[in-house]
């Protein structure tokens, strides 16, 4: 991977001498610079995920900064979390010392938990110097349920919301009779497994779960033993939240073994999965996602074009980056300030026009409500599938779109808010 330094500034070009602190209403008529620390996994086996996240936010911030009359400029400071909670804590100390007031990214649920806790402690001890966490990727439901925190906002539908859409679609697929669950052995993978069991029981009680496996994240190099178990169990469908190499190697092992099953996935649209699938995946790989490359508005067409020009080996697979940037800008404008407390209060309950329709930040738990799509891996025909991805002649055809109201689930958050 091209990321070697621990820290890199990736969005700049701002006028020299612009203050980097916070701006009350009168100064927002001038150009205000807002620094955001972005933590991603930029080294190790999951670095492609971190690089994709980093470059997507980079392009989104560039587009935001270039808008005519824009007086708020986003300055992204990039850090390598290495997928380590310990490393993230060290980076957070540096961020706090540098006076950076906004954080995004993280990498894994373990890193995000450590950041949420560190930000909460910091804000309690440093009134007036609070830090706000903008979470665009970690979708563990607990972050907006039992662990909800005023200083944390999530801009992506969480695991249970995504499973709601996925199992709604699966419920109508009468060819699904025996399901095998295989997931990474950490919080996110557990949540995918548990929600699949619960929601299948509610929507398709006739479906039998014939096996469950949890494996180490990013450490398995040969999935053939797992595929042998899936084959022996007689599964016709796999449900998995695997991403990156864990999904790519799982798919390759299934293809090598001639395992002709359906895959219902969270991340089958990027990070090497489409390449691994090839023609063998047509009609078999399904996906729940917030990104529909077949329905890009003019703004997103320009963003996608710029992204592919700069980073042709990567794929845009996520809408949350861009909804996060737009809502942050709207909250700064509404509050007339870049002060995190004022921005957080402005963001609560806010609705904006998102990438694929209206999105809303629920005030009670700081969970974004956004549309979701279920798609099937299909040949690119320029119509139903507008473009091939990862240099292949295949992409994802949208089979169903679920409005934010369709996957709005109850929460258990009891949030303590500043006076």
Output the keywords.
Rossmann fold; 2 domains; 419 residues; six-stranded mixed sheet; alpha/beta
How would you characterize this protein structure?
With about 425 residues, the chain is of the alpha/beta class. It has two domains: about 5-155 and about 295-370, 3-Layer(aba) Sandwich (Rossmann fold); about 160-290 and about 370-405, Response regulator (Rossmann fold, 3-Layer(aba) Sandwich), CATH 3.40.50.2300. About 35% of the residues lie in helices and about 20% in strands. The protein has helices spanning about 45-65, 85-100, 110-125, 160-170, 185-205, 225-235, 245-255, 275, 300-310, 320-335, 340-345; strands spanning about 5-10, 30-40, 70-80, 100-105, 130-135, 150-155, 180-185, 210-215, 235-240, 260-265, 285-290, 350-355, 355-360, 365-370, 370-380, 395-400. The protein has a seven-stranded mixed sheet with strand order 8-7-9-10-11-15-16, sandwiched between helices. Helix 8 links the parallel strand 10 (about 260-265) and strand 11. It is globular. The termini are far apart.
């Amino acid at each position: 991977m091209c990321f070697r330094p621990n820290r890199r500034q990736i969005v700049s070009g701002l006028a020299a001498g612009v203050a980097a602190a916070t701006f009350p209403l009168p100064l927002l008529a001038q150009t205000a610079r807002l620094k955001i620390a972005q933590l991603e996994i930029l080294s190790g086996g999951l670095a492609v995920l971190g690089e994709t996240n980093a470059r997507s936010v980079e392009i989104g911030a560039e587009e935001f900064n270039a808008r005519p009359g824009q007086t708020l400029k986003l300055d992204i400071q990039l850090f390598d979390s290495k997928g380590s909670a310990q490393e993230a804590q060290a980076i957070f100390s540096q961020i706090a010392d540098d006076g950076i007031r906004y954080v995004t990214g993280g990498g894994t649920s373990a890193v995000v938990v450590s950041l949420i806790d560190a930000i909460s402690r910091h804000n309690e001890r440093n009134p007036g110097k609070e830090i706000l966490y903008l979470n665009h990727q970690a979708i563990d439901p607990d972050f907006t349920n039992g662990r909800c925190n005023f200083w944390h906002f999530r801009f992506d539908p969480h695991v249970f919301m995504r499973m709601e859409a996925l199992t709604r679609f699966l419920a109508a697929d009468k060819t699904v009779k025996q399901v095998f669950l295989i997931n990474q052995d950490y919080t996110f993978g557990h949540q995918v497994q548990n929600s699949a069991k619960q929601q299948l029981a509610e929507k398709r009680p006739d479906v039998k779960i014939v096996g469950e496996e949890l494996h180490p994240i990013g450490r398995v190099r040969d999935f053939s033993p797992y595929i042998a178990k899936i084959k022996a169990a007689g599964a016709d469908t796999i449900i998995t939240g695997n991403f990156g190499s864990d999904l790519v190697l799982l798919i390759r092992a299934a293809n090598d073994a001639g395992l002709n099953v359906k895959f219902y996935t969270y991340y089958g649209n990027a990070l090497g999965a489409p390449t691994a699938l090839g023609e063998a995946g047509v009609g078999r790989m399904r996906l729940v996602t917030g990104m529909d490359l077949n329905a890009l508005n003019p703004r997103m067409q320009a963003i996608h074009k710029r992204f592919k020009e700069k980073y042709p080996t990567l794929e845009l697979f996520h809408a949350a980056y861009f909804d996060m940037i737009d809502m942050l800008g709207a909250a700064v404008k509404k509050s007339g300030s870049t002060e995190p407390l004022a921005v957080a209060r402005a963001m609560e309950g806010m609705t904006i026009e998102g990438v694929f329709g209206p999105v809303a930040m629920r005030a009670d738990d700081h969970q974004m409500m956004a549309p979701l799509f279920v798609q099937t891996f299909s040949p690119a025909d320029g119509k139903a599938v507008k473009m091939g991805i990862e240099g292949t002649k295949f992409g994802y055809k949208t089979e169903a779109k679920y409005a934010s109201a369709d996957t709005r689930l109850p929460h258990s958050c009891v949030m303590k808010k500043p006076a």
